[in-house]
Every structure is written in structure tokens, then in C-alpha cells.
Amino acid sequence: MIPVTKPFLPPKEKVYELLDGVFERNWLTNNGPLLLELESRLKRYLSANHLQFVTNGTIALQIAIKVLGLKGEIITTPYSYVATSSSILWEGCKPIYVDINESDFCIDPDKIEEAITSDTSAILATHVYGIPCDTDKILNISRKYKIKVIYDAAHAFGVELNGEHITNYGDISTLSFHATKPYHSVEGGAIITNSKEINEKVFLSKAFGHVGDDHIQLGINGKASEFHAAVGLCVLNYIQEIITLRKQRWVRYNDNLYGKLFTMDIPKNIEYNYSYFPIVFETETQMVKAKERLFKNGVESRRYFFPSLNDLPYLSSRQQCEISESISSRVLCLPLYHDLELDEVNRISSLVIDCL
Ligand SMILES: *Cc1c(COP(=O)(O)O)cnc(C)c1O
Fold first, then answer.
1. 234 C-alpha to center of ligand 1: Å?
2. Which residues neighbour 329 within 8 Å (Cβ) at sequence distance 6 or greater?
3. Which of 82, 176, 328 to mutate to test the pocket of ligand 1 (most atoms within 8 A of CB)?
4. 46 and 167: one domain?
5. Protein residue with its CA nearest to atom 14 in ligand 1
6. Tell me, what CATH number does 252's domain have?
7. What was the pLDDT predicted at 299?
8. Which residues, 6+ apart, have CB-to-CB distance to 138 below 8 Å?
9. Do the domain assignments include residue 56?
10. Which pLDDT tens digit goes with each residue over 82-127?
11. Of 53, 85, 160, 286, which residue has the fewest beta carbons closer than 10 angstroms?
12. Does residue 340 lie within any of the structural domains?
């Protein structure tokens, strides 16, 4: 079976070398030397002012909401992974869904203002498939209404907009280093901010809010281990290679499928990370047929994102988002990973085309 994604694994020996040091030091977690090294290398790689490594991308979002002191309503996108919405709910806030653009599937900035009320504290938007949101318009709205902006940049590791790392936008940007992401540390995540004050709160938040016996603020446990840092350091050595390999596969899909059905356009002012290859069919029936045909031929594909988050069954009220509902009923992400054979990319493309 061809999986829809496959984690990149560095050579075992490289990981073992770092683990030897962990066993020698007997220092397993709580800001160990490997974690500090990884934080500083990631900070440099992403040209970030402040970066904190945390256990996963979901706790990154929750800590972001907590340290910004968000309350009441948070304007968000219905087209994202469930963690974007669940962290809002988990922090006791209410997600207010604003529909997406038909072109890039990111939140439609022109629909944000009409959703703002006196209860709105922030906008939490996702750079969908690594394509940046309209950060200029969102910044203007946030200034006009004095609300915060968090970007869920889980798909956007290494993406640059006009030469600037996308993770430097917003009051906070969060990353996920889950095994399924192009850059990973098995499990992991990061919180990036330009503000020293926010960064200090994040530092305390991820470690129970205390330093020694001094309990400074409310905290939770978002600390990462030396084992995760070891894998993260090793994978980081291969990130250029990973992106180059993904790009070859992405370009091949694009050559095969462009113009045949909806495929993503990468804007010219973007340095992209080739994180996903989504396709959108004309109807849900066609999508289901294609998914089944792929599966019968040994190819896994993923309805990503599905459902549209405004349809989550545990929301207190239903808000309509026509475009997001429509796209999520017809979208499929095709297999994309570093060592997927190019012949397989051709075969998968043909299977898709046969269904049109
Ligand atoms: C992966 C992902 C998350 C969650 O990250 P975890 O590290 O798995 O907790 C959140 N948002 C988006 C958009 C994601 O793709």
C-alpha cells in the first residue's frame, strides 16, 4: 500500500550518536542541552526573534491562546485540522467561523470585519497547505479593532513570503513537528513571537509556571524530551534535501494534473515547502469514486480537511460556511513524501485522470 504520507527517518547511527550523550548525561528532559541546541538552530533557520519548542502543535496553540489572555470569541477558519478549533474550545473560548477563499482555501479577510463583535478577542487563522493567509489585510483589521492574531503555521514550516519567514507574522505563530509534517521531531511543536514579553510567558507556561520555588503564573506541561530533540536535530540536517525531494514529486503531480481538475497555485512571491498536493473534484461523488479507485489500486489518499470545522458535532451552535463545506466535501490529498517513486506519482495521476 502506498501511504498518503511517510515520515523521513535520518540514519539510525546519527540519532544513536546523540542518544549516547543523553545516556552519559542522564539528563532526559527539562531544557536539556539537545533541546536548547535545537531551539537555537530552529530559531536561526526560521530567522525567528523568539522560539520555544513544545511537546506538540496543539499545546502550542493552547499556550498561545492562554498567554495572549484571549477570552470570548475568536474568529477562525473552518478549513483546517481539528486542533485549530479544539484548542479554542479547550481554552473556553468560542470559535466564530469566517468562510475561506476559493483560490487558496485560507480565511477570507474580506469577511472578517462583519464577524467582529465587542466579544472578539483575536483571529486564529491557518496557512492552509503552507500557502500564506492575506497577512497584510489581517494585520490591518487587527490594528483597527485592537485584537490579537495567531497563525497556525503547522503546514508552513520554512515557507517565506516576500523573503520573510511566514512564522514571523502575527502576535504568535505556532508550528507542529508531528511525524506527518515535512519537518518533524516524532512529536513536537513551536511557539514563535517577536515579543520578548510574550516569549517569557510562553517559557513559564510550558513548564508549570514556576522557576524553582517561585510560582509566577499559571502553567501547563509542554516540555519536550531530549529523545525528541535528538530526532529533531538529525532531521533538521536533511531539511533542504527533504524539501527538494518533495518538490520533484509535487512538480510531477502538477505536470500530470494541471488543468485537468483543481490544483493549488503557488503564488510567485512565496518560497514554498511542498507540504501537500490537494486536488478538488467537481462533485463529492467523483471524489469518492476516485478515493475508492486509488484504494483498490493500493494507494491511500486523505480527505484533508474533512469535515469543515463548522460542522463539528460538539459545537454549541451551527454557523454556515458554504465554500469551506463545499471544498471539504470534494478535496483529496494525494500521497507525497521524500522517497515516493516518480513512477508511482505518474500511476496515481493516471488513476485520478481515469475518474474524471
Ligand atoms: C498537525 C496540525 C496541528 C496539530 O499539531 P500536533 O503537533 O499534531 O498537535 C494543528 N493544526 C494544523 C493545521 C495541523 O496540520
1. 21
2. 284, 287, 306, 308
3. 176
4. yes
5. 154
6. 3.90.1150.10
7. 98
8. 107, 109, 112, 123, 125, 149, 170
9. yes
10. 999 999 999 999 999 999 999 999 999 999 999 999 999 999 999 9
11. 286
12. yes
